[in-house]
Design goal:
The protein is mostly helical. It has 26 helices and seven strands. The strands form two sheets. Strands 2-1-3-7-6 form a five-stranded mixed sheet, sandwiched between helices. It has a two-stranded antiparallel sheet with strand order 4-5. Strand 1, helix 24 and strand 2 form a beta-alpha-beta unit.
């Protein structure tokens, strides 16, 4: 780190600034070795024991397995190789994992290793972007290190959600924009549009959240006339539309009856998914569970989940609302370690370079990454529902770059008061907030937070003292002490994030909402027994006898079951194609009852599966004593969480429940109907 920091600025603190952007001198040997160490170290850390995450998010793992088995499933991101329905995201992430499965055979390693390699790519792009604008490979190395030791990065670049490839492409777009700024390169700004187009195909509108920052920075900084800047921006927008639009056109031109249904859409169109379920409906909190008969988790009439179980975690969670969302709860642990320091760094660069020409590339890069942080952070803060903590991975590169640019600027101006005061503020923001976050998990490494706090306070106070006029007498000594204090402060500011990222790596992460940090003992909850009954619906283990039943089938789909998550779990356990009725939330209007009847008549499905749970008497809302003489209703208290009640009722009316596997009931659809 000392060697890295020593190269953060020109050798003379008072030397005039150089024109940054293209004139990058050849790398020295230690710089090449340091970059190699950074990239190899990132790869080793992220690939190490990556299979501890098993299938990660089973929903996306099932789609990756399907893509490894069938080319059409790969193209469209189908949940099942039978190509009935897709996952509710575009397919770029599935292309990577599915192709890896086709090349190396589907497994946890073949699915997750590409995600870790993407981390190396993102770190390399971060290094390149910051190095370009600062002409300092030390600053670039710092940016790469900060990105690699961000906890949410350590989590999601070892996981199989589409966020990793989306953020890699967003980082590539920012890199291309930074390359375009010094000479207003049409080629580079067009490539930025291409990268954003594919980011859109990774996670739709979230992949475009960086677009305003990139566009504004180019319009402000590019050294050409406003008219040409606007024309270049239109060219980049055109490239974005082509890079993303070809797939939209493909879904329109491909006959709907010969491709899978686009999950999450109401009318089987890509743009409805973009603007509705994955767009404004998600952001404004308008997405709800439920099919044509209401929420599949609604209990039978006369029953209600007790309050202590609802509070124990049965049902969707949330992360509050407003700006404090980014600093509290799980989101705070995942992304906020250096967020205050990044905001300080953004302001520092703008103030320090306030009198530079409009075309100042360093300030332009600060606009790219600072506006990215501010705009995307504000959007996350205002999201009404459906917010997962790991979504904040989208601002991790911006925070890393802002922090590195701020440290570089403080270092460059270290002979001036603004450099020392700005450096002190940046160090304090990183270290004090790191102390707060570590204090929230005070039982883990209790000593660390006090070391961090002491180091940053000493470093910051020292820098502020050196900015006072009396310190001018210690001219030579002051420069050396400033160097030591900045290095110590930066290292201490990074300590909390680094420790939490390191604690994240060895933990097993599965399911829909993985978390960062050290393993935490699970607290007992009244909801535990209830969750155990519905193990399959929450990504749990599948009964081995049920697996054997599905593996013995020879139909296009071994079974049909309500919702994509249990269908995915059955597919991964049995390696057979399972039809997901209603998609992820049961709200997708497929299959209709006539469509399902046709599939059964054509012998395309072997079994219909539905959980049948006997609810405890204590859950009854009506406590009126029962009449002992009244006949016992065998359906009393039986709960079948299925979104499509029409299909459920038709199957129960025409077929007999042949086997039960715990609370899962199987109906044999190959038998003659009643």
């Amino acid at each position: 780190m000392t060697a890295t920091t020593a190269e953060l600025a020109p050798s003379e603190p008072t030397a005039p600034p150089i024109d940054r952007g293209d004139a990058l001198p050849p790398a020295r040997r230690w710089e090449r070795l340091a970059l190699a160490l950074l990239l190899v170290g990132t790869a080793a850390a992220y690939l190490w024991n990556i299979t501890v995450n098993a299938m990660g998010n089973g929903f996306y793992a099932a789609a990756a397995w399907s893509g490894s088995q069938n080319w059409k499933a790969l193209l469209f991101g189908s949940l099942d190789p039978g190509n009935f329905i897709t996952v509710d995201k575009p397919p770029v992430s599935q292309w990577v994992m599915g192709l890896s499965g086709q090349l190396f055979g589907f497994s946890s390693a073949s699915m997750l290793a590409p995600q870790a390699i993407m981390a190396v790519g993102a770190v390399a792009l971060m290094y390149g972007a910051v190095t370009r604008v600062t002409c300092s490979r030390g600053a670039g190395l710092l940016a790469g290190v900060v990105l690699a030791v961000t906890p949410v990065v350590a989590l999601m670049f070892r996981f199989n959600n589409p966020d990793a490839v989306m953020v890699l492409l967003m980082t590539a777009a920012a890199y291309c924009t930074v390359r375009a700024l010094p000479r207003a390169s049409l080629r580079w700004i067009t490539l930025a549009g291409v990268a954003l187009g594919f980011a859109f195909l990774a996670k739709m509108l979230e992949g475009l959240m960086v677009l305003p920052a990139l566009g504004l920075a180019y319009l402000i900084v590019a050294p050409i006339s406003l008219r040409r800047r606007l024309l270049h921006s239109l060219a980049a927008l055109g490239a974005l539309l082509v890079a993303s639009g070809w797939y939209v056109v493909l879904t329109i031109l491909w006959p709907a009856d010969s491709r899978p249904y686009l999950a999450g859409s109401k009318d089987n169109t890509f743009m409805d998914l973009v603007l509705g379920y994955n767009g404004f409906a998600r952001y404004l909190g308008k997405n709800h569970m439920g099919g044509n008969s209401g929420n599949p988790f609604d209990l039978p009439e006369g029953y209600q989940i007790p309050a202590d179980i609802r509070q124990g975690g049965f049902g969707p969670g949330g992360f509050g609302n407003g700006p404090d969302r980014l600093f509290t709860g799980e989101i705070g642990f995942e992304i906020s370690w250096l967020l205050p320091a990044a905001l300080v760094a953004f302001v520092l660069v703008l103030v320090s370079r306030g009198r530079r020409p409009r075309t100042d590339v360093m300030r332009g890069a600060a606009l790219v990454f600072g506006l990215w942080t501010v705009i995307d952070g504000a959007l996350f803060a205002g999201m009404k529902s459906g917010m997962h903590a790991y979504y904040t991975l989208a601002i991790a590169p911006a925070i890393a770059a802002c922090f590195a640019l701020g440290v570089f600027e403080a270092w460059r101006r270290r002979a001036d008061a603004i450099g020392r005061i700005g450096g002190a503020a940046l160090i304090l923001a990183a270290g004090v907030w790191g102390f707060v976050l570590l204090h929230r998990n005070s039982e883990w490494q209790a000593w660390l937070r006090w070391v961090v706090l002491a180091a940053v306070v000493v470093a910051a106070v020292g820098l502020l003292a050196l900015a006072l006029p009396p310190a001018a007498r210690l001219d030579r000594l002051r420069g050396r002490v400033t160097t030591v204090l900045l290095v110590v402060g930066v290292l201490a500011g990074l300590a909390g994030s680094t420790a939490y990222a390191a604690a994240t790596l060895p933990q097993s992460h599965t399911g829909g909402s993985p978390v960062v940090g050290p393993g935490r003992p699970k607290k007992a909850s009244p909801a535990d027994d209830f969750r155990k009954q519905l193990e399959l619906l929450f990504g749990g283990q599948v009964d081995p006898q049920l697996v054997g039943l599905l593996q013995a089938t020879h139909t296009r789909w071994s079974a049909a079951i309500d919702r994509s998550s249990p269908a995915a779990g059955l597919e991964l356990a049995s390696r057979t194609s399972v039809l997901a009725i209603g998609g992820f939330t049961s709200a997708d209007p497929v299959p209709t009852l006539p469509q399902f009847q046709d599939l059964v008549r054509d012998h395309e499905i072997s079994y219909y599966l539905v959980p049948e749970v006997k609810l405890p008497d204590s859950w009854r809302v009506d406590k009126t004593p029962k009449d002992p003489a009244a006949p016992v209703d065998p359906e009393q208290g039986i709960w079948r969480p299925a979104g499509n009640k029409q299909i459920l009722d038709w199957v129960r009316a025409h077929y007999t429940a042949t086997q039960k596997f715990g609370d899962m009931t199987a109906y044999d659809l190959t038998a003659p109907p009643h």
